[in-house]
Amino acid sequence: MMDLYTDNTSNGHRVAIMLEECEIEYQVHKVNLRRGEQKQARFLKLNPSGRIPVIVDHDESVVLSQSVAILLYLSDKTEKFIPKDMANKAKMLEWLCFHATDIATTSGNIFYLNNSEWLGYRDAVQRLNDRIYDWYKHFDQQLSKHQYLAGDDYTIADITVFPSIMSNDMTFFEQYKHMARWRDDLLVRPAVQRGLSVI
């Protein structure tokens, strides 16, 4: 049995999707970010950095934050959604890290720079947006050759990236047609649907 502390964010969705895909029994605890519940003492005992999601695996006495770390942990625990052979596993980690370190970090910076107090940084926001769209060309090219990001198998690389792009507008998916096909393939998975509706 696990506890999931989360809110309605892409980071939270990817962990809920993974729990559903792995068929792990878990209980959801909503952490309302708008009310600042992630900064309250009760939550900070679980994650001193004050960020969601967090899982508590009671079977292993493990408390873990960082969505990608959680997905890797759950893959190791269940032996699911991670390739067995080293070459495929390496490619899966490459795509997972590409998104987690480059795109996610840049997207976070764009979010903060788009606040009204940063109005003088519009050029920086545009440059960062251009960089992300350029990176997504690589994702689209990869998906033109393979069904999933790391090849022919659905892995945690797909689960990591999917929540971040699923709600982009039609203009985005007209530009990245192979990502649109991939998104549609994932949206019909029952575990993905359940994970998206947790919060």
Can you tag this structure with a few keywords?
single chain; 199 residues; alpha+beta; 4-stranded mixed β-sheet; 9 helices; globular
What would you say this structure looks like, in words?
The protein has 199 residues and is of the alpha+beta class. The protein has nine helices and four strands. It has a four-stranded mixed sheet with strand order 2-1-3-4, with helices on one face.
Number of helices, where a helix is a run of at least 4 consecutive DSSP H or I residues: 9
Strand order of the largest sheet: 2-1-3-4
Work out the radius of gyration: 17 Å
User: What's the story with the biggest beta sheet?
Assistant: 4 strands, mixed
Rounded mean pLDDT is 92
The unreliable regions are none
Instruction: Specify the oligomeric state.
Output: single chain
Overall shape: it is globular
- Run of helices and strands: EHEHEEHHHHHHH
Tally of DSSP β-strands: 4
Proportion in β-strands: 5-15%
* Portion of residues within helices: 55-70%
SSE-based structural type: alpha+beta
Straight-line distance between termini: 19 Å
